[in-house]
Specification:
7 helices; about 200 residues
């Protein structure tokens, strides 16, 4: 996906546009899925588990966009025959919910959803062996949202600890490092597993 439309406009319309860009990136990654047993950058999760988590997250964010409350499926989704198709359908439903919700419902779901779906789009792409980057403008916009809206007290429940990276690193590397992933440019230390979700 290109970086057309890079740069965020303030307010709900900008949030919705950011989400649409992030969803486009994630949907492209989903098109690459073939082997559901592949490991992912998320410690302890294979591609099947990651895709089902992505579908659950999309359902929860759809509830937030439509009703103002984040409601994740409980218990988490399991056993779907085609997790990539389920994740794709749920992402498209979330995109529809975010773009058709009123300003109040769209903003929070779009901001949180943009970071979540782009991060997991990156995870899916890496698990599938792709090096397709998050476009630089999208990565910079998502990094700004993530750093301003992810409080330290909530972080351990959502993402692994940030990975240290120089401020001069590309925006994509800084984004994924902030979200607890090891950018491709960083070697993995012996005995160190990948980050959490």
């Amino acid at each position: 996906m290109g970086d057309a439309g890079a740069g965020m406009s303030p307010g709900p319309a900008g949030d919705v546009a950011l989400f649409a860009r992030a969803a486009g990136y994630a949907l492209e990654a989903l098109a690459e899925v073939t082997d559901l047993d592949r490991p992912t950058p998320c410690a302890g999760w294979d591609l099947r588990a990651l895709l089902l988590h992505l579908a659950d997250s999309a359902d929860g964010l759809t509830a937030l966009a439509r009703g103002g409350e984040l409601a994740l499926p409980d218990p988490p989704r399991a056993g779907d025959a085609d997790p990539a198709a389920v994740a794709r359908a749920r992402l498209l439903a979330l995109l529809d919910a975010v773009t058709s919700a009123g300003d109040d419902g769209a903003g929070a779901a779009a901001r949180a959803g943009a970071v979540e779906v782009a991060a997991h789009g990156w995870d899916v792409a890496r698990a599938c062996g792709s090096t397709r980057p998050v476009p630089p403008g999208l990565a910079a916009d998502l990094l700004a949202v993530a750093t301003s809206s992810l409080p330290d007290g909530v972080r351990p429940h959502l993402f692994a600890a940030p990975v240290d990276l120089p401020a001069t690193a590309p925006a994509e590397d800084r984004l994924v490092a902030f979200l607890g992933r090891r950018p491709a440019a960083l070697p993995v230390a012996p005995g160190v597993s990948g980050p959490g979700s």
